[in-house]
């Protein structure tokens, strides 16, 4: 029987359009693989649609209508990046409705979405991160920092609100800009190193493995513009020595396991003279065919359509491992 997959895209944050692109690509791959697909879209205002059809005029009523689509689905594929999606919100919806879903559960999504919490977990399992300080947007005006730092919102993505600050005036602007995206901000030391991403996939049998890492060649910060205007250059596989590849892959798997990720996660590092420094964990990374994750798996011999189908095959009902 044809399996029905509800692919959820859009969402209520700055990455709305990026999520729509991921959802469109995933839905296309599933349709060509013979699956029945329902396209659910969360508007910027939180109102759900099914394709072009409005499901209501307010968030709650439209979600009630979307639930009947989810009820008929065999699997939900949440393709919403960022807050109120990737942060575990959609995993919670699947847990409460007992619906198998692709990707990480609420805990892994929530911790991965929080760059401060991610840092604490990483350091606890022996993975280095950039020294950094957490400040609230409210106190940021009164706090003194040294300069040559990177300022970023704790929970955002696609480089929105991320900036380098070399002097006090740039720092003020960077803090103000980052505060548009979150009221918790991170001020980090600048890490000097190559930017290397590692993608980890957890298969239906629970086995998880990392694809060959990818290197991003960005001029300075890998910013929003270079992420989406096609100017970023990637090397896949990254040109790495055996020891560096092994260290990056081991750190990625350790982080995947520490958070209890599922489906696919992209774990981003700087490779420094002293080894890998973790930058961040993405539990719902960009998933168009041109995005980093599919490009890494393609090099591992897993083409885009197959990757998407493997993710659906590995879907589980999120929730506590033991149901007493
Ligand atoms: N501490 C840092 N040192 C140097 N560059 C950084 C640092 N933090 C972030 N960057 C740069 O900024 C980009 C975006 O930051 P990141 O934390 O990955 O945010 P996002 O979640 O929006 O992708 C990174 O890809 C990297 O190029
Ligand atoms: Mg990033």
How would you concisely characterize the structure shown here?
The chain is of the alpha+beta class and 324 residues long. Helices cover 35% and strands 25% of the residues. The site of adenosine-5'-diphosphate has 19 residues, from strand 8 and strand 16.
- The CATH class of the largest domain, by name, is Alpha Beta
Calculate Rg over CA atoms.
19 Å
Low-confidence stretches: none
Number of helices: 11
CATH topology of the largest domain: D-amino Acid Aminotransferase, Chain A, domain 1
What's the structural domain tally?
Answer: 3
Could you tell me the strand content as a percent range? 15-25%
How would you describe the oligomerization state of the chains in this entry?
A: single chain
**Architecture of the largest domain, according to CATH?**
2-Layer Sandwich
Question: Could you name the key traits of this structure?
Answer:
Rossmann fold, single chain, Dna Ligase, domain 1, globular, about 325 residues, binds magnesium ion, alpha+beta, binds adenosine-5'-diphosphate, D-amino Acid Aminotransferase, Chain A, domain 1, seven-stranded mixed beta sheet, 11 helices
Note down, in words, how this protein is organized.
The chain has 324 residues and is an alpha+beta fold. The protein has 3 domains: 99 residues, 3-Layer(aba) Sandwich (Rossmann fold); 140 residues, D-amino Acid Aminotransferase, Chain A, domain 1 (2-Layer Sandwich); 59 residues, ATP-grasp fold, A domain (Dna Ligase, domain 1). The chain contains 11 helices and 16 strands. Strands 6, 11, 12, 13, 14, 15 and 16 form a 7-stranded mixed beta sheet that branches. Helix 1 packs across helix 11. The longest helix is centred in the C-terminal third of the chain and has 18 residues. The chain binds adenosine-5'-diphosphate and magnesium ion.
